């Protein structure tokens, strides 16, 4: 079965890293079509996944665009739509990975008429989308998608609450290869030395810098912790949130935290850095759809504290496999950080339990199997009864 994946982004967000894991599994019979150049393309090439950038025109549908603006932007994208329509004739199924790629892919698919699977990775709510864009996404998914995969039950529930058809949906969690998160204790000690972290209690935050990822909450929490507690902020502003980055630096200056906060920017060595932390803090201020960093911390055998909302509630059982704290609550976050520092054995036991849980519940093999089965069933359903009989064996 040949799969055409579509993603509008060229940067490495969680949606793209998750697509990479799935596309790697299908690399002999897929193409990833991107709508921007960037590090995502480079990484796909490194992993020998066929990739093509389909346009050099940027897709400027903003969060607060009106319905009309969104459509007029799409009108400018006519050549891209035609290109996808032509390309998709060579594929059995189209799988879109972002809202923008879903809208464009669905329009192209009016011509090519393939089963269209949308991998919905965002919580569709007013926190992240204008009413107009919400309506466009939900309507197009309802009318044009053969299936809507969601990355958590929370994402699924939000889709249905926004008017999405429940019967289209199926939850498939992100999957991970546990062996990719193993690091040696020597490497960890060296990294801590290089970063000047010896003798410190290190709290890591591994998210792109964006207001809703809540790095400011962690900075505030530091003011309620002893001076040996420091924060590593790993990640960059991927979608133009430079103003927030400036605010974070300003907050560090105002709170006198210069020697307690390190901004490391976007890093490719996340598992090594996580292993060098004493605790990983996830601080999103709006419900996180899934939260790859949470499972990654578990696989690095590091204790995790996270915001109690969205898909996170499906990942962590509080006090058993991590800790949950309310969104925007720097005092409660600081309390967990301090407890974790005072009781390292209890924290290590929680991290161990989380590791066991995550290596089974979120293994990439399970994710890829579910995904492949779903696609195979759709392609079979799409055939005429005669074709099913003659082609069934070949497709499966
Ligand atoms: N990540 C990374 N380098 C960084 C910061 C983050 O590779 O400097 C990765 C991180 O390991 C995770 C992904 O980016 O796999 C973020 O995914 P998540 O689902 O946590 O959040 P998203 O950014 O997709 O909302
Ligand atoms: C999106 C979500 C994130 C999720 C990722 C992978 O980027 O914001 O929560 O983990 O997709 O599905």
Brief overview:
It contains 17 helices and 13 strands. With 396 residues, the protein is of the alpha/beta class.
Structure overview:
By secondary structure, the protein is an alpha/beta fold. The chain has two domains: 3-175 and 364-391, Rossmann fold, CATH 3.40.50.2000; 178-361, Glycogen Phosphorylase B (Rossmann fold, 3-Layer(aba) Sandwich). 47% of the residues lie in helices and 14% in strands. The protein has helices at 14-25, 39-46, 67-75, 78-88, 99-112, 131-144, 153-161, 185-194, 215-222, 242-254, 270-275, 292-299, 312-315, 330-342, 344-361, 364-382, 385-395, and strands at residues 3-7, 30-34, 51-53, 93-96, 116-120, 147-150, 169-171, 201-206, 229-234, 261-265, 279-281, 304-307, 323-325. The chain has a seven-stranded parallel beta sheet, sandwiched between helices. Strands 10-9-8-11-12-13 form a six-stranded parallel beta sheet, sandwiched between helices. Helix 9 links the parallel strand 8 and strand 9 (229-234). Helix 4 crosses helix 5, helix 9 (215-222) packs across helix 14 (330-342) and helix 16 (364-382) packs antiparallel against helix 17 (385-395). The longest helix is centred in the last third of the chain and has 19 residues, at 364-382. The chain starts with a strand and ends with a helix. Residues 384-396 have low confidence and may be disordered. The structure holds uridine-5'-diphosphate and alpha-D-glucopyranose. Uridine-5'-diphosphate (UDP) is lined by residues 12-15, 17, 206-208, 234-235, 266-267, 270, 290-293, 296. Residues 12-15, 17, 206-208, 234-235, 266-267, 270, 290-293, 296 line the site of uridine-5'-diphosphate. InterPro entries: Glyco_trans_1, Glyco_trans_4-like_N. Pfam families: Glyco_transf_4, Glycos_transf_1. Residues 189-356 form the Glycosyl transferase family domain. Residues 13-176 form the Glycosyltransferase subfamily 4-like N-terminal domain. One of its GO terms (molecular function) is glycosyltransferase activity.
């Amino acid at each position: 079965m040949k799969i055409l994946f579509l993603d509008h982004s060229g940067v490495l967000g969680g949606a793209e890293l998750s697509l990479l894991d799935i596309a790697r599994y299908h690399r002999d019979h897929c193409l990833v079509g991107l709508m921007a150049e960037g590090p995502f393309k480079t990484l796909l090439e490194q992993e020998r996944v066929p990739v093509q950038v389909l346009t050099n025109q940027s897709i400027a549908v903003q969060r607060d665009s009106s319905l009309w603006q969104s459509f007029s932007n799409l009108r400018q994208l006519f050549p891209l739509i035609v290109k996808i329509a032509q390309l998709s004739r060579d594929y059995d199924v189209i799988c879109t990975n972002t809202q923008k790629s879903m809208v464009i892919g669905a329009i192209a698919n009016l011509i090519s008429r393939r089963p269209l699977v949308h991998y919905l990775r965002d919580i569709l709510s007013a926190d992240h989308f204008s009413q107009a864009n919400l309506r466009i996404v939900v309507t197009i998914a309802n009318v044009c998608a053969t299936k809507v995969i969601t990355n958590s039950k929370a994402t699924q529930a939000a889709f249905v609450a926004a008017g999405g058809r429940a019967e289209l949906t199926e939850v498939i969690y992100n999957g991970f290869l546990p062996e990719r998160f193993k690091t040696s204790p020597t490497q960890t000690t060296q990294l801590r030395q290089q970063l000047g972290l010896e003798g410190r209690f290190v709290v890591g935050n591994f998210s792109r810098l964006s207001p809703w990822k809540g790095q400011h909450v962690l900075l505030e929490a530091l003011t309620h912790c002893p001076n040996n507690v420091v924060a590593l902020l790993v990640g960059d502003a991927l979608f133009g949130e430079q103003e927030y980055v400036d605010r974070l630096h300003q907050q560090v200056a105002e709170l006198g935290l210069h020697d307690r906060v390190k901004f490391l920017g976007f890093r490719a060595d996340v598992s090594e850095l996580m292993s060098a932390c004493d605790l990983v803090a996830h601080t999103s201020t709006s419900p996180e759809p899934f939260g790859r960093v949470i499972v990654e911390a578990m696989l690095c055998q590091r204790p995790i504290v996270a915001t109690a909302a969205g898909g996170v509630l499906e990942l962590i059982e509080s006090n058993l496999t991590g800790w949950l704290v309310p969104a925007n609550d720097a005092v409660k976050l600081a309390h967990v950080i301090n407890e974790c520092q005072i009781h390292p054995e209890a924290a290590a036991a929680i991290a161990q339990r989380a590791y066991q849980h995550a290596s089974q519940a979120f293994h990439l093999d399970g994710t890829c199997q579910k995904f492949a089965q779903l696609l195979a069933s759709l392609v079979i359903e799409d055939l005429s009864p005669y074709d099913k009989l003659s082609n069934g064996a070949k497709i499966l």
